[in-house]
Amino acid sequence: MGNIDPEPTVFVVxxxxxxxxxxxxxxxxxxxxxxxxxxxxxxxxxxxxxQTGCLVTDVRMPGVSxxxxxxxxxxxxxxxxxxxxxxxxxVDMAVRAMKDGAMDFLQKPFNDQVFLDLVQKAxxxxxxxxxxxxxxxxxxxRLDQLTPRERQVLDLIVDGxxxxxxxxxxxxxxxxxxxxxxxxxDKTGAKxxxxxxxxxxxxxxxxxxx
Length: 210
What we know:
alpha/beta; Rossmann fold; 2 domains; 11% strand
């Protein structure tokens, strides 16, 4: 599948320029790639689905707030982990953000190491999730290559039927079942029955029916 591209990036959206600079220095000190934005609108102009990393944003900003930005990302199929930053009086808003899917929130001023640990955790989760998403796309592409008959054979194999039982159920010869089974294994890239089962389970496609 190859490495995930583009490179994981920490996107910092905050209208306070001095804060953006200090956060950039802190993140860069541990070799994290950083992109800074003064507004949610600027961030939304460049972000694309499939990007890995995380978003760090203030809950209160002129124009589009952190809460609104979080919702707009969902609408655009952008699934970066979100870390919300708050001032003392905004904890209720931060809790609401977490209920809407934010990963965590930090109250300003925050401890540098706590912040770095949380960001690294978010980046790692993003890369892991995107890798899984891309694997599912690839596995689905493989299964889509199966003919209707090959898909029937696949479902029966996963149900635990032998070649002889499959032949009887589909009213075909044992040799034909063997040929279908070989093509299923080839098209899915499975090297064993166990691997074939994992592919089907990963996509949650098997319904127990031929």
